[in-house]
Every structure is written in structure tokens, then in C-alpha cells.
Amino acid sequence: MTTDSVESSGRASFPGRSNRIRSLWLAALIAALVVLCAFSVAIGTREVVWSDIVAALGGQVDNIGQAAVTVRIPRTVLALLAGGALGLAGAIMQGVTRNPLADPGILGVNMGASLAVVVGVAWFNIASAQAYIWTAILGAGCSAVFVYTIGSLGRGGATPLKLALAGAATSVAFSSMVIAVVLPRNDIAGGIRSWQIGGVGGATFDRISHVLPFLVVGFAISLLSARKLNSLALGDELAAGLGERVAIARAIAAFGAILLCGATTAICGPIGFLGLVVPHLCRLLVGVDHRWLLPFSALGGASLLLAADIVGRIIARPAELDVGIVTALVGAPFFIWIVRRQRVREL
Predict the structure, then answer these.
(1) 151 pLDDT band (50/70/90 cuts)?
(2) pLDDT-based confidence at residue 106 (cuts at 50, 70, 90)
(3) Quick one: which of 137, 87, 114, 112 has its CA closest to 259?
(4) Could you point out which of 15, 85, 175, 225 has its C-alpha 20 to 30 Å from the C-alpha of 214?
(5) d(C-alpha 177, C-alpha 198), whole Å
(6) How far apart are CA 234 and CA 57, in angstroms?
(7) What structural domains does the chain harbor?
(8) Bridge partners of residue 12, in order along the sequence
């Protein structure tokens, strides 16, 4: 991106797709999300008819079908919130680091939150929802700082390749530490292993209410960082020349992503690859302007996680696959494609 991308007002300009085309894609994405919500409520181990869905939405629970719907509604809401949070966090991290491979899972942020929660449960006996959330956010923040520090060492600073390698190594190390902490604790091993897979099953509105304030703050900070990320995309020197406080802008945007990752990991477990796949797909639709990319990434993340949850219920009937497994099956090949397309040696 060059100085031609700077408007006379001093703001970053991203020519290409018209707002009309973007608006059409936005309407299509919202419509797809509505359809997926309907499928999420209707599809599961037990098929339900629309009359049961309508009755359950009205608060009536007179049969098994209506009871099933009342269980699926909070699950659908959690999938929307968690998917939106991870998709948005991925777009923020790619913008902050200018790294096409950035993702809460690949950069070790999710695993840092996971390790913090596991240590809190095993060594400090944390049990409350608020303690889970604060611990996960603290772990996500410490992991992000650690990976960025390691990736910044040596010649050239924090290059995309060095950050990706540092994040991958950190994720592996933290995953091994989680196993080491859980292994001697048979009393918590079953629950921790199930949580580590990543899923939205067992959601309740009470659980969602605890994490909702953190997600709202994270969404607000992240979405308000769009213009700053547009400036950072021009390069640090040009962004500073436009009057942007580069370090502060990067820190604020990263803080929003950390809140989203930490809160989501606390309630769902570490769900990988969503933050990598969604921003790339959204760039194909709306371009690189973060004023459009961030909302699209949130909606796209919600749609993809909801679709993954529906697929997980269908392909393993009468049991189900957690969304963490489904997103990994989709995300791993996509990651390989991105690496080959970007020619990692040239990043």
C-alpha cells in the first residue's frame, strides 16, 4: 500500500469494491445467518416440528420437542457470540501484526488462556464464572505479549513469519504444560479434556450472562479500532506521519481482541482456525478496508461456527462432534493453502 492510498483528509483510502456491492454482500450474509439460526434450533439428535419451535419461543414446554428447542436456543446464541468474537479477533490480530497467518490459535493466545484456566482450576481451585473469565483474559494477554516479544527479537523485528513460528512453538509448549498440570489430577481431568476440545454444548443463558459484558466491551473496542487499523496498514512510519500514535493504536486494538479471545475461551474452550479462515474469506468479499472487514468478520465468524455446530450434530448422530473438531478439519487445509499462497519464505 502506498501514499496513493491516503485521502486528502489524511485518512487511509481503500479503493476497489463499491459500497453498494458490499451492502449486497452484507444483506446476503445476514440472511444466511438467519437461516443458520433456524437450522440450529430445528436440527439435532431429535427432529422437531416448527409448531414446537414456535411454542418453545413463546415459553411453552409441554413435550420433548419443545424441551429440545429450549436447550438449543441458548446454544445457538452462544455459537453466534463465540463465532463473532473469534472471527473479529482474528481480523484484529491480522491487522495489528500485518500478518496473514495471524489467528488466536496460531499465535498461542487461546492456548495461553486455556493454560491459565487449567492452572487456576488445578492449583487455586477457582470455580466461579467470573474467576474463569478473568483468569482466561489474563492468560490470553500474557501469551500475546510473550509471543510478540519473542517474535520481535533479532534482525527485522516482528516479521509475520517469526510471529507465526513463535506462536506455534508457544501453543505446543502451553499444550504440553496443560497436559502436565492435568495428568496427576484425575478429579478434574475428564472435565478439562472435554472443555479443551472446544464446543458450545451445554450452553445456558445464565452462563452467557456472565461472559456477555466482556464480549460487549471487546466488540466495542475492536470495531472502534477500524480507522486506526487502516492507518497501521499503511506502515508505521506513514501512520505516524498521519498523526496516529502507532503503539497506542496497536495496543488498544490488541486489547479488544484479547478480551474477545479470553472470554470466549473461558466459556467454550479453545476453538482454533476460525480467526484465520473468516477474515481471509471476508477480504475476498469486501476488500481490506477494516471499516467493512471487521463487521463482516464478526458476522462471518458467527455464521461459520454456527454451521460447524450444525454439521457436528448431523454427521455423528446420535452423538455429535464438538465445533472445535469441525473447525480444525476445515481450518487445517485452509492454513496449508494460505501458507502456499503467501509463500511463507517471502513473508
Answers:
(1) confident
(2) confident
(3) 137
(4) 175
(5) 18
(6) 48
(7) 77-346 (1.10.3470.10)
(8) 6
